[in-house]
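Weekly sync, protein design subgroup
Attendees: M.S., D.O., the rotation student, P.L. (late)

Item 1: inverse folding check
M.S. brought a backbone from last month's batch and wanted to see whether the design step gives back something sensible before we order anything. D.O. pointed out we never logged the input encoding, so this time it goes straight into the notes. Structure tokens as presented (383 positions):
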């Protein structure tokens, strides 16, 4: 794989904002500025090759064949991952209560780190935040993480809070879309999206099912926070992307493809082999229609920020959109370095683009992800 996350087209005409056709989505004449993004990763980092047998000890029964597990780990496209806990602590998590307690403890630490880093980068304080959206699909709590963190980092008592559960991997893109919707109606406000995903804590012990082994080969842990400001908020926006429009798509009769089966042992993952086929059949036409509503085609997009759902999913996205080699390189790199971090993954990619070389002003980007439902979410960005 070659190329970079930013693809430029010599001589490409970039349509002016007022040339775009009316959108059939949440588009508005107001835009949202992404003021900062910060990722927080657990300190426990492991090479994939070192995790394979340890995860086998956890998931398989003594003497059970490990051929499939080893093949999945070799083909997952993952080189290293971060785990919420040291790997030797996982065998002691023998029930859902213990795993969920670990999720709360580690999630609060990582969430605080991501929030404080994002506030500092955006040049704001916690008291400046008007809306906090917090998403996770790897644990549950009441009071929710956002309530605990709002007090912990010093947000105002009247801060609006929206805890989100159930969107899964799509929640990074969908969360960005929903805070954009909010800021269109509250252009003077500042909104924050926080994703906390500790996927390793959902791994099922003594479960040799294909879905559990796939999860054990792909997923990593992390948190990410986005600070976004409405069009009427003060502050410089040079070099920072703007959210122009968003659109979600929910596909009927696909509920069985992705999600959880929840039982006494916690969250048992559902990952169907038919997901790449749905992506090939549906994502391309829907995304082309979304872009067309703004006078754009895929070739007008210079930056693709795609959820790294796994090698087969990334290949399906590239195929259905007929993307050139290297267009999804940032997603492949992220998959290799931290694995699939569920909803935090696309936010980490958005942060990486700002750190490694911002796209040229006036160029377009698309941030996209998929999740349980089965569903997709598209976010149109402009630098």
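Designed sequence read out in the meeting:
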């Amino acid at each position: 794989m070659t190329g970079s996350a930013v693809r430029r087209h010599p001589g490409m005409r970039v349509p002016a904002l007022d040339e775009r056709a009316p959108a059939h989505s949440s588009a508005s004449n107001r835009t949202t500025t992404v003021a900062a993004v910060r990722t927080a990763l657990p300190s426990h980092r492991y090479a994939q090759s070192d995790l394979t047998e340890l995860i086998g000890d956890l998931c398989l029964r003594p003497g059970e064949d490990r051929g499939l597990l080893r093949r999945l780990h070799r083909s997952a496209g993952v080189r290293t991952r971060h785990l919420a806990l040291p790997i030797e602590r996982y065998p002691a998590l023998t029930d859902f209560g213990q795993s969920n307690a670990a999720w709360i403890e580690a999630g609060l630490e990582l969430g605080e780190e991501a929030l404080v880093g994002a506030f500092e980068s955006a040049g704001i304080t916690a008291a400046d935040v008007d809306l906090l959206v917090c998403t996770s699909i790897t644990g549950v709590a009441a009071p929710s993480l956002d309530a605990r963190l709002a007090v912990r980092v010093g947000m105002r008592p009247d801060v609006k809070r929206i805890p989100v559960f159930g969107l899964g991997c799509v929640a990074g893109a969908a969360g960005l879309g929903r805070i954009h919707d909010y800021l269109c109606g509250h252009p003077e406000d500042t909104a924050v999206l926080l994703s906390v995903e500790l996927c390793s804590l959902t791994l099922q012990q003594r479960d040799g099912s294909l879905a559990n082994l796939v999860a054990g080969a792909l997923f990593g842990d992390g948190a990410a926070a986005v600070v976004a400001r409405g069009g009427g908020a003060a502050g410089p926006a040079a070099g920072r992307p703007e959210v122009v429009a968003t659109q979600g798509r929910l596909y009927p009769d696909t509920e069985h493809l992705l999600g959880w089966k929840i039982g006494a042992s916690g969250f048992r993952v559902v990952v169907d082999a038919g997901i790449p086929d749905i992506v090939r059949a549906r994502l391309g036409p829907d995304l082309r229609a979304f872009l067309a509503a703004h006078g754009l085609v895929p070739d007008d997009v210079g930056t693709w920020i795609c959820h790294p759902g796994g090698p087969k999913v990334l290949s399906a996205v590239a195929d259905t959109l007929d993307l050139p080699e290297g267009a999804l390189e940032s997603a492949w790199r992220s998959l290799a370095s931290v694995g699939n971090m569920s909803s935090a993954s696309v936010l980490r990619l958005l942060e990486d683009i700002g750190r490694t070389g911002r796209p040229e002003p006036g160029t377009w980007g698309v941030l996209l992800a998929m999740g349980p439902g089965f569903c997709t979410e598209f976010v149109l960005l402009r630098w």
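Discussion: The chain has a mean pLDDT of 91. Residues 21-383 form a domain with the Peroxisomal Thiolase; Chain A, domain 1 fold (CATH 3.40.47.10).
Action: P.L. to compare against the previous round before Friday.
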